[in-house]
Amino acid sequence: MPSVVSHLRSILAPLCLAFALMFAVAAPAAAQLSFKPTDQAVHEDKLLEALKAGEKVTGRITIPDRMAASLIQPAGREWRDFQRSMLPWIGGIAIIGMTVLLAAFLLIRGRIRIEKGFSGRTILRFASFERFMHWVTATCFIILGLSGLNISFGRSLLLPLIGPEAFSMLTHWGKLAHNYLAFPFMLGIATMFAVWVKDNIPSRMDWNWIKAGGGLLRNGQHPPAKRFNAGQKGIFWMVIIGGVLMSLSGWFLLFPYQAGDVTSLQIWTVVHAIVALLFIAGILAHIYIGSVGMEGAFDAMGTGQVDVNWAKEHHALWVEEEQAKGRTPAGAPPRGMPAE
Amino acid sequence: MPSVVSHLRSILAPLCLAFALMFAVAAPAAAQLSFKPTDQAVHEDKLLEALKAGEKVTGRITIPDRMAASLIQPAGREWRDFQRSMLPWIGGIAIIGMTVLLAAFLLIRGRIRIEKGFSGRTILRFASFERFMHWVTATCFIILGLSGLNISFGRSLLLPLIGPEAFSMLTHWGKLAHNYLAFPFMLGIATMFAVWVKDNIPSRMDWNWIKAGGGLLRNGQHPPAKRFNAGQKGIFWMVIIGGVLMSLSGWFLLFPYQAGDVTSLQIWTVVHAIVALLFIAGILAHIYIGSVGMEGAFDAMGTGQVDVNWAKEHHALWVEEEQAKGRTPAGAPPRGMPAE
Amino acid sequence: MARVKFLCDADRCIECNACVTACKNEHDVPWGINRRRVVTINDGKPGERSVSMACMHCTDAPCAAVCPVSCFYTTADGVVLHSKDLCIGCGYCFYACPFGAPQYPKVGNFGSRGKMDKCTYCAGGPEADSTPAEYAKYGQNRLAEGKLPICAEMCSTKSLLAGDGAIIAEIYKERVMKRGYGSGMWGWKTAYSDSPTG
Amino acid sequence: MARVKFLCDADRCIECNACVTACKNEHDVPWGINRRRVVTINDGKPGERSVSMACMHCTDAPCAAVCPVSCFYTTADGVVLHSKDLCIGCGYCFYACPFGAPQYPKVGNFGSRGKMDKCTYCAGGPEADSTPAEYAKYGQNRLAEGKLPICAEMCSTKSLLAGDGAIIAEIYKERVMKRGYGSGMWGWKTAYSDSPTG
Predict the structure, then answer these.
(1) pTM
(2) What DSSP character marks residue B94?
(3) Which of A246, A144, A254 is nearest to A189 (CA)?
(4) Do C156 and D153 touch (CB under 8 A)?
(5) A147-157 mean pLDDT
(6) Which of A333, B35, B260, B279 could bridge across to B242 with cysteines, CB 3.0–4.6 Å?
(7) CATH number of A76-324: 3.20.20.150, 1.20.950.20, 3.40.50.2000, 3.20.20.70?
């Protein structure tokens, strides 16, 4: 028996070796024969699932347009959702919300009067260049704002009223205006910054002004302020920061694909749209307070001359400074006032 | 030592088996891996060399036009050579050769006269239906012949004279005439056969007529003949056989691809062209003898009435037969003869 | 005709670019615009696949959803077309399109890119069928002549299929069954929100 | 441009018939006429080869030699064209052509087949270049636009080559050198009486 076992072993050992060799040799051939593309298949579903947010399925392309190498960009759907679902909410809340807020404010607080009434004497608050700068920028802003709102909401609000041809032509001209007025607007923002930044550095005084509610909430309270009070400084910095963000994001939309591919354009349009809506809401408040909301305020950007009483109530320290410089109020004839 | 050998054998035997098995398994895989298309490559040159005359390199095609399955047909080149090289020689020899022959005959033998001169009395040789049949067929033949010659030689002879547009239009109308006149021509051939075959059965008498040279070579010799002598019988059978060959070959050209593919069309055009040229040459001789070549002969197909002297000289037995039937020569007024 | 679709079977595409050439030729598409393109992923690596991609004529098309001037419309066959007369070239459709289909003749100078151009499924545009005006703006209208898009008609491996969505999906499913694998109907789920092969 | 030719590398042809489709589409070739076709020899057997064949634009073209009205002419590029105004539809060119290139719109009725039609190497006809009259009779004149024949441009495997005869022969020779075999430049010797690969 042992001999049989030994014999069997002596047979089996080389057999096993031979078989091992056989498989070693035949394996690549067999692999070749049984090659299943499925083993190495690229499944679209898996590829898409593996993508991180904002990523694209990208490959190689033989045409010069490198962006065409992006095969599928699922982010397009999120951008679409932002445009069609989120943006109307943001726009609605920001613009309609601000309008309601201002209407309520007007209703409750009423117009903020000059407590002591018009003195009839005025003092120069904004030089002609400053006013020019303001109104150029403001005009640009209004056209940019309206044409921008038209791009986002005109399809729902205006298109049904005037029909596709008229609406398309209007939007086309609006787009051109938007593109070209962007440049004077950017120039205006830069000039405003240069001219007014020195008067808009925040200080401790601003904190007191804010704590006192800026004198807006109650009559007869006028926290002291230099040339610009904290509220105006807020508007200034909103305009500067908002303007820079709009300029930056707009620049990349004006010159597409300079900063990247479609993903960056998607991001910049989102930034542009959100900042724009907040900006517009803020400027609505600015327009309100500078016109309907406060007696005597419009003159500052209208004629440039504000009533001395208005100036003393809102910018007591600035009037003192001006007088110290020898810039006395002009002896203008008494202004025609309401019999109050 | 024997134990070692035995041991070695016991190792080697299964090893060999294993290796054999390995090769058996791996062989197809290896064949797959080392597949060289060149081993089984189809070489165009070899394919073309292996072709027999008239064969084509043919495969499978997925469009409905089955003839398109022929990939290369080298026979086209031979057909071209026939058209451009051989056909002008055949045509030249047949037609110019026959014309020269007839001119020489006229020069040497002169016009064959009625020895006894015009009798002034005539006998009906061809009834009006026979003459109608003859002339319809003859007219068709002339137009068919001319338009056919134009297809083969017009390009060289006529095109340089009248320019491509006029020549193309002429050839186009010629082709239409050729196609449509084929039918009355075929009808004419068939009718001629039906009407005249009984008088054209060859007999021993024809042999004597031929031995005597038909009386054409020397004056005063007139071997007896019934209605048609051997010469006329020859013309008859040439017309019948030629007509059938022309009709058959022409039919396949009129309705291409009914009888086969391009190869059969090549053959039929060659048959059509060669038979046509010989036919034309033969008919030239027929025209000669029936007009310029023999005094009194044209009347047979012209008025149908031949002079009795002409009839007796050329168709002595037929005149006797006619008189036996009681068909006496018409007492026509003496014919205006030259003063000979 | 039912709802027409495109289907690219990437397991068959040999990246010959004949679809690209055929499309450019059929519609006289100007330099720089490619209504169709072939993208190769994993180039030179295991699992390399090429996909011919153009406008997929999506159900509930994103381009139509975001267009500020609403210049898109969907035909009875499910083909997504647009009016170049209305288009203002703003680029929004390109941002929203998952497949990069919209193309513009110009890039740059103050965002004026010219009228958007994209695959029409060889179905022209809003102009009267097969008129020179339609050809000049949108190319051949093969659908009006009863023909399918030239890209798919010419595909040498029939990797790219065009026609009734139900039929071409059926063809693809049969292929997958027969060969035992399939890398997916590229873009199908994204475009049509369904996936017949699961 | 030098002498242009066609070259079909049968070792590459996958019988996709895109060349056939492209040609029919480019020139609006009517039903029943195929200016180009793909023939498969040894179908399903070892040594199967497919060859895309059309007019080879022969040197000393047989069609031109046998035409009864001499309606053929050869352009400066070596393209063999014909005038449909002069053609009488006799069929002689078809009998002589080694490649079965000439096609006729009709077959039968008393041999009136209509004007012959064949591959123009996408070079139109005797009419003024790229005119509607030329298009109606002969199809697109791509050569006049600086483009090569659409069949070869669209060939997915670049089996069918068109262009300067010297250059495409060189390409073929390089291929044969590289892959180590070649079944021949189909029809080349018959058409051009030379054979660069010996």
Answers:
(1) 0.79
(2) I
(3) A246
(4) no
(5) 95
(6) B279
(7) 1.20.950.20
